[in-house]
Amino acid sequence: MNTSYAMTRLRQSCAENGPLCVGLDTDPSYIPPEVLRMYQSPAEAVLAYNRGIIGAVKGNAGCCKVQIAYYEAMGLDGLRVYAETLRAVREAGLPVIADIKRGDIADTAKAYARAHFSGIFEADIVTIHPFMGYDALEAFIEWPRNAGKGIFVLLRTSNPGMKDIEWQQLADGRRLVDAVGEKLAAVAAQFEPDNADAAPCAPVGAVVGCTEESDAQQLRGAYPGLFFLIPGYGAQGGTARVASVLLRKAGGTVNSSRGILTAWKKSESLCLRRSAGSLTMNDITDAAGQAAFAAKAELLAACRLSPGDTDR
Amino acid sequence: MNTSYAMTRLRQSCAENGPLCVGLDTDPSYIPPEVLRMYQSPAEAVLAYNRGIIGAVKGNAGCCKVQIAYYEAMGLDGLRVYAETLRAVREAGLPVIADIKRGDIADTAKAYARAHFSGIFEADIVTIHPFMGYDALEAFIEWPRNAGKGIFVLLRTSNPGMKDIEWQQLADGRRLVDAVGEKLAAVAAQFEPDNADAAPCAPVGAVVGCTEESDAQQLRGAYPGLFFLIPGYGAQGGTARVASVLLRKAGGTVNSSRGILTAWKKSESLCLRRSAGSLTMNDITDAAGQAAFAAKAELLAACRLSPGDTDR
Q1: pTM across the whole model
Q2: Is A101 one of the annotated active-site residues of the chain?
Q3: Alpha carbons A199 and A12: distance in angstroms, whole number
Q4: Tell me, what's the pLDDT at A308?
Q5: Would you call A106 and B75 a contact, using CB atoms and an 8 Å cutoff?
Q6: Could you tell me how far CA A220 lies from the centroid of its own chain?
Q7: Angle at A181 between CA A235 and CA A110, to 5 degrees
Q8: What is the pLDDT of residues A212-243, one digit of tens each?
Q9: How far does the CA of residue A83 sit from the closest CA of chain B (Å)?
Q10: Is any Cβ of chain A less than 8 angstroms from the Cβ of B130?
Q11: Residues in B touching A134 (Cβ below 8 Å)
């Protein structure tokens, strides 16, 4: 059955609204205590914050990514807010990526796929750890076929430690990242293009950070057909220039979390307003909206300046 | 601060109660529909099942491991039952391992550690993915120092796909599993022995499956000081003989999930009772208790037969 793939919708949304992925990695500590106190609980404040930001970034974001760890850390209340946040993103008409980085096998992997592709925690696309081997992907790959869902598999992450395992040199001359990438490209190729759409996109993509230009050049060149989820932009030192390399060919979406979520802290007028005790949740989410506008503009400018072909 | 490590308590519990780890990977489908219907919801039935099994295996299990995926698949209700199950294991006086296989970096890893080492989802020990690199372990390693918590890092899992990444041959002649294992041994060595206890045990251990004897020999020989969480026994084809190899030196705990949880299905008299419509939850949990007794006996017999030294 050839349903419309969430990954194709994501790609179309990025073509319409720009390549920015707003990361709702919302820690209650991002909200000033005096604003936090206006809500029944930290979890409720986080929900209001997320809803405000989802509204404020519309038109300047291709999608949102929700990092489940911050919600797990708030217990059951936090997970209820996680579910509400996923719903709010979908209701705003944006694809939602659940950044769950699960990785397990057999019946356990099936349970994770069921948990995050259906029911209260239903997302459009999830992130997956390949460490245990390619059988860890199987349970998730049923879901694109049957329900259009998508997966991003960790390939080359944006943290310095990525050299420890992902970037290991193998005996056959490849790096581990090449072995995993080749497998992902082969899996992605098994899916028929989603012919209903102008820009078909396989429902299996890869996570590739934008922290090192030469790595970005190599991986974009090696896997022209994989859509990328691109972390590391902003807070982690990745640049729009490197992101623009990864946005070529099949394209991708560039995550920014703290750069958007805590944009208010960089506004002198809002810091003054905070000192005066009159900072509101609206001020915070407006600042997030402006930061999304600026990030989108920076990414699109880098794409125009960046050499190399693109089929976006 | 030298608190009593959960890993040391786990090792002591295994010395007293045997090396079996009962895996509460409880899928509602393991419970016959007619028994399931006696409860308000599938999640409530799972909680009763778990509580019954925890009681029934006492004295024959060194610990319990709770696989969070099955509870996530039941939504918020499932996660409440997950929390209650962790509490029931701890109240029974057994160490509880949360099989969460999380793996992330920086603030996100800190959020996961907070989520699973404190609050409603507090466990004694958690399982961790090393794929993103050794900085993925940092946030978790603070917790043994401060609160006695422990981690098991995935090293050589029990699934056939483990050859895809974990068992890759590196350019320097080692396998990836060796690179990760050496790092874990070095991290474990940073912890002072917990002098309050007779059998000190570093709070950093490794997951090593018992599906292949030569791999078990190699890894047990290479990392004599690491305590192992040993999956694959029973349903996945691992044997007590191979497990006994991994139980030498620093020792370990051997997980069995379905072998215990669905033991009732192998009892002719219980299947007859089910046909007669009179199977009860007590019948099911009694069968689990008998299966735990048999598994413990099989593992201890294999340890007696197995050549090689042991310091247990």
Answers
A1: 0.96
A2: yes
A3: 7
A4: 60
A5: no
A6: 18
A7: 90
A8: 999 999 999 999 999 999 999 987 889 999 99
A9: 9
A10: yes
A11: 161, 164
